[in-house]
Amino acid sequence: LEHDASPKKDGASERVRERERERERERERERERERERERERERDRDRERERERERERGRERERVREGEREGEREGEREGERERERERERRRERERERARERERERERESKRESEREGEGERESEREREKEREREKE
Question: What does the pLDDT read at residue 64?
Fold first, then answer.
């Protein structure tokens, strides 16, 4: 029974099978195109992730540079504060020297007054002795 199929029928079946194979090849090409689109999307995501990593590295480098600049500015501010403290110490030493010179002038003036007072008292004693001699 199997052998009595007509050639016409065999040709029709062959055309049906050929169309089915063509549809399968087209479906396979479409699956391949979809896989290629997916690979392209994955490459796009990879490129975007890389751009984001690069932007983050740039932001990190900027934070580091800003930290360095802030460190430099802080160092400059600290240096200025130290120079100001040194100027204040010099001014205080100068004020202390001025106070010491003033105290020394006062002591000298007091000694001078005492010498003058002693001289006055000596002169007064001399005059007193002179008057005593005159009385005698």
Answer: 95
Closest CA to 90 of 82, 67, 34: 82
Residue type for position 53: R
Q: What is the DSSP letter of 16?
A: H
User: Reduced to 3 states, what is the DSSP secondary structure of residue 64?
Assistant: helix
3-state DSSP of the chain: CHHHCCHHHHHHHHHHHHHHHHHHHHHHHHHHHHHHHHHHHHHHHHHHHHHHHHHHHHHHHHHHHHHHHHHHHHHHHHHHHHHHHHHHHHHHHHHHHHHHHHHHHHHHHHHHHHHHHHHHHHHHHHHHHHHHHHHC
Supply φ then ψ for residue 36, to 5 degrees. Answer: -65, -40
Tens-digit pLDDT profile for residues 58-116: 999 999 999 999 999 999 999 999 999 999 999 999 999 999 999 999 999 988 888 77
Return the amino acid letter for 51: R
Q: What is the mean pLDDT of residues 5-19?
A: 76
Number of Cα atoms under 13 Å in the Cβ half of residue 80: 6
